[in-house]
Every structure is written in structure tokens, then in C-alpha cells.
Amino acid sequence: MQTPEELTAVPSVDAADSTEIQTAPEPLDGSETEAMDIPVIEAMDIPVAERLDMPATETQTSSGPETLDLTNRPAIEFPVPLPRERHGPARVLALVNQKGGVGKTTTTINLGAALAGYGRRVLLIDFDPQGALSAGVGVNAYELEHTVYDVMLGTEVGIREVRLPTGVPGLEVVPAGIDLSAAEMALVNEVAREQILAAALAPVLDEYDYVLIDCQPSLGLLTMNALAASDGVIIPLECEFFALRGMKILVDTITKVRSRINPRLTVDGILATMYDARTVHRREVLQRVVEAFGDTVFRTVITQTIKFPETTVAGTPITDYAPTSSGAEAYRSLARELVSREERSSPAAPTQ
Questions:
Q1: Which of 224, 233, 150 is nearest to 192 (CA)?
Q2: How many domains is the chain partitioned into structurally?
Q3: Which residues touch 158 (CB under 8 Å, ≥6 apart)?
């Protein structure tokens, strides 16, 4: 059994060890690529939601020989969720990873749009001072009088006064700007400073089915607020070795928040992003993650596509910009999987 330190240690490769590096099989596009030595990862003690067994409502996608999905597990087709006649209370989900550039903002925008496409009311919270989520839905936060910064500082401005509609029906956003970067310093001496966002969200939870919080790439006070306000966490994880190194720190942080601040907090799932099946390295990383975390890893995998950068420029989700693209279908699949998991965990809850 490896220790947590051994799990996240960077493997050293010197000249003497160079013969142990695997040779990659022929990639799909014929380009050359090499495999890296990916250490075996053992499962961490992760607070997972208790709803990860395969439900009867999901079906195998093949009637013949078993078909495997990109995670190398039996392929499953998740049912299209029924639209809801009434909404709320919302399930609050924080998209967290202290490593930047792993697809948190892209996932928040497009998962939210996909959920809205299935009849859910969704509120996006831009909790990153860079304001990428706001820009990604066509909102210029620098032209606004109020942002989430004003909500966090305890002014008379609330979520209802700050939220804005997007071009997607059923999808609204609470924007952020660079001023949010000063919030951590301003709140450092506040009483119950980790609970400020939870208190601000409480009055509007009955108006939505989901609240998705796009966190900044750090584990500071803003992220602690997001975790304290959330029911669950989605961890976008780039299929790259160095993205694995911070997993232990992140899981330890979630565990501490659960034990000290928010006992209902669970990990809803780990989402593999930026996946390219042509590279041996990314295939190996994904396989190691699945072996370590099992069904905590979403079966949906977000593959690389040029459409994602284009949607950022257009200021619209990929489900609207390129609805027939592989990226749009991937996020619709993720939305179906997420709703399916939630309904399995709360069978008594109304679904329509």
C-alpha cells in the first residue's frame, strides 16, 4: 500500500531508467507520441455521494459484444431527464481544482447550459476574479455597477439584484470582476467569513434546480466559501500527470470542510477533461484515475475540440454555438449523467 506522498510523487527518470519508458502504439492520426511512466494511484479516502451503483434505468448501448466507453468501462446510455413543472430547492455544486486550466469555467458554462436545455433552472456563480465565466456567457462585468463582490462584502445588494439573464432560457449568471480579488483581504476579520456565500444564496435556492459555482484556481477563502455553500463538488481533472499531483491536497481540503464546516458536502464526481485518445499518456492517466476512484469518475469524458475556444470568443455556450459538435454532446451527456445520479440518490424527490 502506497502512502499519499508516494501517490503524488513525481517519478524520476534518468539516463539509466530511459529504457523503461514505454513506446507508444500508433496513434489515430499517425503522429508520433510517447508514453510516460505513470505511477499506480491508490484510492484516497474521498467523501463520495452514496449513489454510484448502476441503476436499472440506464441501459448498455450494445446488444452484442460489450461496448466500452472512453473510461474503459461498459458503455451506458443515460436517459433524457423529464422537464420539471416546478423548481427548487437547488442543489449547489462547486467546480473546484486548485490547478488552473483544467476546464472549470468551460464545464460550468456548458454543463449549466445543458441542464437548462433539459428544463432545469440554473444559476451560475462566477467566483473567479478573472471573470472568465461572465465573459463566456456574454457579460462584460467591467460595465456593471454591481457584481458578486458587492454581495460578499455585505452591502444591501443581494443575489437578486446582481444576477443577469443569459442568452440561454433558464440560465442566469452572477458576474464577477477583478474587484473580487480584494474580497479575501476585506473579509479576513469577518465573523463566520466562510459562510457568507451560503447566507447570500439561501433566499434564492427555491427558484433554481442547480447552482453552479466556478471557483478560482486556489484553495483560499473564496473557495472555502464555495465549499461551505455547496451540497457537492465536481472536480474537473485534465488527463495529464501533473494534474494528478494536487488531488490529495484537494481531497484533504474537502474532507476538512466536510468535518468542520459543511457536513453535507460530498464529491459528486471527477470529470476527465481535455482528453485526446490519440495520446498514450492521456489514455494512461485516465485509466489510472478510474482504477483509483472507480465510479466517482464520471463516465462522460470531455474531449479536446477547437470549438471550445471559439465559444469563448462568441460569448455563448457550445450547446448553442455548435449544438451538433462532439463537445456539445459531451456536456449534454454529462447533464444527463448528473441528473441520473441525483435522482438515484433521492428517489422520493419529485422529478417533474
A1: 224
A2: 1
A3: 151, 200, 203
Residue 77 included in any domain: no
State the virtual CA torsion across 168, 223, 257, 125 in degrees, nearest 10. Answer: -20
Strand 164-165 relative to strand 232-238, pairing: unpaired
For the chain, which ranges sit under pLDDT 70?
A: 1-65, 345-352
**Cell triple for 104:** 472549470
Residue 133 belongs to domain spanning: 86-344
Q: What is the largest CA-CA distance in the chain?
A: 65
* pLDDT confidence of residue 45: 58
In a domain, 153, yes or no: yes
In this structure, what CATH number is given to the domain that contains residue 307?
3.40.50.300
Which residues, at least 6 apart from 199, have a Cβ–Cβ distance to it below 8 Å? none
- In order, the DSSP letters of 93-132 are EEE--SSSSSSHHHHHHHHHHHHHHTT--EEEEEESTT-H
